[in-house]
Design brief:
The complex is a heterotrimer of chains A (265), B (267) and C (323). Chain A is an all-alpha fold. In chain A, 77% of the residues lie in helices and 0% in strands. By secondary structure, chain B is mainly α. Chain B has one domain. The chains are: A mainly alpha (265), B mainly alpha (267), C alpha/beta (323). The interface between A and B is medium-sized, with 32 and 33 residues.
Chain lengths: 265, 267, 323
């Protein structure tokens, strides 16, 4: 693949990113999941956890942001391909020279980055309610963890969206996948509270490792070895997701072009 | 007089039957199970664990009861308001305006099924509580509990009716529904003692449905008698009536404006 | 080398019927289609709804893979060479969908140009040019949701030209357009052809096929039932060309004299009140009128009406209706 091709692929991804941001801007349904819901969860968690002291403010900010990230990947990114089908633009994507994964990656990236805005909002909300600025214990490590987390969520979205568009029945169950991940990933409470048999389930979830990294670097209490472990796990999962998504998209194109089951409804 | 009454009764039951069919046509079995059985369970588990983290082990039933009763809002808010706005999306709204029948009767008839559905949801929630989380219902008066659930579902449906009518003049009805549902989670006392909230928040709590219903349910399960919680239930019921009235007024006003402006679909 | 070569293309759809016990039903959308399109040609696919036109176009534009048969576009196989083909062809299926409503026309084009791997500098110049070409230069910054049906269709055409493809596939491009819009779009299509682009057009508007296409394939039930120039197709229904002379009295011998002419197929007489009508079938159509008049020298002739067979007549007869 020539440098020129890579450059043009990158441009397509960037424009998919830009157009998704623009379209999300006016989509109330998407905005709810990205902003309103995490904010309300933050508010509730602030009040529920206030007895635990002011150290927990940053915990709630980060944790509620993570719930927003997951909800976004599940609902917004998950429906990215399905939405293209509704607007009748899926066949344009299938028929265009740029690989469809590049486009979907750009869209997912836009969703995830937008969702980080909710973390910013709950941070502001915390300042307003409690009148103090919550402190991030290890800011540089937090920033790196955040970047790796974003990549792993985007890659996960690359699995969810083809699965959902190929199996509408699975998509209908998406409501039921929201809170269980909140629970198993330890977004707003440590998984030590859960029964032991659920721990392996937590370990195979990338969001769990993301939450562990982000909580450790913001609320503190972990040495670098542990943080590096979480980074390693997230990167590993991202690679797994990328490889799996390659196969899934191949199947998607097969279904679209051979079975003709995905284009115009 | 009798004719009007029988006409209204007929409308009521037709509305109820229609919404019953619509409910089960729209939600396929898998989705219905996911929403009615699995959904409330995971909400409950989340808040039980969050509550454990926040305060301590012995408070599990606080969160279980809170969220089980809270689940009536799923039908009361979403179900009821969508049954009004369903007309809007199907394009049958103008026919409703044009019909000589009492619109409100139709709407109330439609809400009826959702009230039954909502009660069922709360029962499922409490059952999960008993099966998995050690909820002890042995001290509760079943009639009192049932009445509490019914009244709370009714009052939440009143809010749902208001939201449904609001939904007729805005394009973003799901956004409003979602926001209200989640706000109820916060302000209804399902997951946090109302007394610990700041003053302004407590005011909101008192103006909303669910708050007193949840409080009453907690007291009944702790062993209190019906007469003890009757004042709470009475206020809860009146709040429901109040919201129904508000919704009705809004609807009539909207009808008037639409007819004056000549636009039957507002947006 | 022909630009488009289609060889025994076949496409079968499998659908499931029934909810409880699903049976698989096979629907043959395209039975057996073969044809070639020459470089720079404007080729038409004509046929009733459900004939297989759109399915054929979808196969040729790499959106569907045929069940059997092959096709080559610019020498490349539609299955194996799909990605290369995609960069050189453009297609329009049109309609209300296929555009991003929340974005402006300009942004839609900008986005699609990146999907087609058009160099940014090239795109920047080409987009305003295309908007002007389809008459949308004033409304380019508005959101597509505010566009009329015709405007959306025109934006589709602009989109398809972003990467300057050599081959264009237009599926019912003027459907749903008002007469003025349709006429303007047809002129755009003619202009494109004069730029040496090869165009495959599907339509069920007869006069559109007649006026635009150099050759037409008539498709019915997944097969090509005729392939010729418009004139050639109309030749199938020469017998429909009728010249009607209003005369006052038919003297004896005139019918035989007319029938003797080499360019006359049949002659018949109809009585109409106090006049008669001579109905003459001739493949020369209206061109035969002066000679016929000469043959009818001496007759008092009133009205002369010529009815030429149209492509629609040919089509209807080919597809099985009675003319």
């Amino acid at each position: 693949m020539s440098l020129r091709t890579i450059r043009l692929y990158a441009r397509a991804m960037f424009l998919a990113f830009e157009m998704t941001l623009r379209q999300n801007f006016t989509d109330m349904f998407v905005l709810f999941g990205i902003f309103v819901q995490p904010l309300i969860i933050a508010l509730l968690a602030f009040w529920m956890l206030q007895e635990r002291g002011s150290d927990y403010i940053i915990f709630v900010v980060v944790g509620s942001g993570m719930t927003g990230l997951w909800t976004t990947v599940l609902f917004s990114s998950g429906s990215n391909i399905t939405r293209e089908r509704w607007t009748g633009t899926l066949e344009l994507l299938v028929g265009a020279p740029v690989p469809i994964q590049v486009v979907i990656f750009g869209k997912n990236l836009a969703d995830v980055l937008q969702s980080l805005g909710s973390m910013l909002l709950s941070y502001t909300l915390a300042i307003l309610i409690f009148g103090q600025i919550p402190e991030i214990i290890q800011p540089e490590l937090f920033a790196v963890s955040l970047m790796i987390a974003v990549i792993s969520y985007v890659c996960f979205g690359l699995i969810v969206s083809p699965v959902f568009v190929m199996n509408p029945n699975v998509q209908r169950l998406q409501n039921g996948l929201e809170f269980p991940i909140y629970i198993l990933s330890g977004f707003l409470f440590p998984i030590a509270l859960l029964p032991n048999w659920t721990t392996p389930l937590s370990y195979i979830l990338a969001p769990y490792w993301a939450a562990r990294a982000l909580h450790a670097t913001s609320s503190g209490g972990a040495d670098f070895k542990e943080i590096a472990l979480t980074w390693g796990m997230m990167i590993l999962f991202s690679l797994v997701y990328l490889i799996a998504s390659g196969k899934l998209f191949k199947t998607l194109l097969y279904k679209a072009r051979v079975e003709a089951s995905l284009l115009r409804q | 007089m009798i004719k009007k009454l029988s006409l209204n009764l007929r409308l009521f039951f037709e509305g109820a039957l229609l919404s019953y069919i619509a409910l089960f046509h729209w939600l396929r079995p898998a989705q219905y199970l996911a929403t009615k059985v699995w959904g409330p369970l995971v909400y409950m588990l989340f808040f039980v664990f969050l509550g454990k983290f926040a305060t301590g082990q012995d408070n599990t039933s606080f969160y279980v009861i809170g969220n089980a009763i809270q689940s009536v809002a799923l039908s009361g808010i979403y179900g009821v308001s969508m049954s009004i706005d369903g007309d809007r999306w199907d394009g049958t709204l103008p026919y409703l305006f044009g019909a000589p029948a009492n619109r409100m009767t139709v709407f109330v008839g439609r809400s009826f099924m959702h009230i039954i559905d909502g009660v069922l949801g709360a029962v499922i929630g409490l059952t999960w509580g008993v099966l998995l989380l050690g909820l002890d219902l042995s001290h509760s008066d079943p009639f009192a509990l049932g009445l509490t659930i019914l009244i709370t579902t009714f009052s939440t449906s009143g809010l749902g009716l208001l939201l449904g009518c609001l939904g007729l003049i805005t394009r973003n009805v799901m956004f409003v529904n979602n926001t209200v549902f989640f706000l109820l989670l916060v302000f209804s006392g399902a997951n946090v003692e109302i007394q610990t909230l700041p003053a302004w928040a407590q005011v909101i709590s008192q103006a909303l449905p669910l708050t007193r219903g949840i409080a009453a349910a907690r007291q009944i399960i702790a062993g209190e008698s019906l007469s003890h919680v009757l004042p709470l239930l009475a206020v809860e019921f009146s709040i429901g009536v109040g919201y129904v009235f508000l919704g009705y007024t809004l609807f009539r006003w909207f009808e008037l404006i639409a007819k004056k402006r000549g636009t039957l679909e507002a947006i | 080398m022909n630009t488009i070569e289609v060889c025994n293309l076949r496409r079968v759809y499998k659908t499931g019927i029934g909810v409880i016990r699903r049976k698989v039903k096979e629907v043959v959308a395209v039975e057996d289609i073969s044809f070639d399109v020459q470089p720079g040609e404007l080729f038409g696919l004509l046929g009733p709804n459900g004939a297989g036109k759109t399915t054929t176009v979808k196969m040729l534009t790499t959106l569907l893979i045929p069940t059997s048969g092959t096709a080559r576009i610019l020498g490349m196989d539609i299955v194996k060479g799909a990605r290369e083909i995609q960069a050189q062809i453009g297609f329009v299926f049109g309609g209300e969908r296929g555009l991003y409503w929340r974005l402006s026309g300009y942004d839609n084009l900008r986005y699609f140009s990146s999907l087609y791997l058009v160099d940014p500098e090239v795109a920047q110049k080409r987009i305003p040019y295309l908007l002007e070409m389809v008459g949308l230069e004033e409304r380019g910054q508005e959101k597509v949701e505010g566009y009329s049906r015709g405007m959306k269709q025109r934006l589709h055409v602009a989109r398809t030209l972003l990467h300057d493809p050599t081959v264009l596939f237009l599926d019912e491009p003027t459907m749903g357009l008002d007469p003025v819009g349709a006429r303007e779009l047809r002129q755009v299509i003619r202009n494109l052809q004069s730029e040496k682009k090869t165009i495959l057009l599907t339509t069920h508007y007869m006069f559109e096929a007649d006026s635009l296409c150099q050759r037409i394939a008539v498709i019915d039930k997944g097969r090509i039932i005729a392939l010729d120039t418009p004139e050639g197709l109309k030749g199938h229904v020469r017998d429909l060309s009728v010249i009607e002379f209003e005369v006052y009295g038919v003297p004896s011998g005139i019918l035989e004299k007319l029938r003797a002419q080499p360019y006359v197929d049949t002659v018949s007489v109809e009585n109409r009140d106090q006049k008669q009508a001579l109905l003459i079938h001739s493949p020369r159509g209206s061109e035969a009128v002066p000679d016929l008049l000469k043959s009818m020298d001496g007759l008092r002739v009133g009205n002369v009406v010529v009815r030429e067979p149209t492509l629609e007549d040919a089509y209807v007869r080919l597809v099985g209706g009675k003319v």
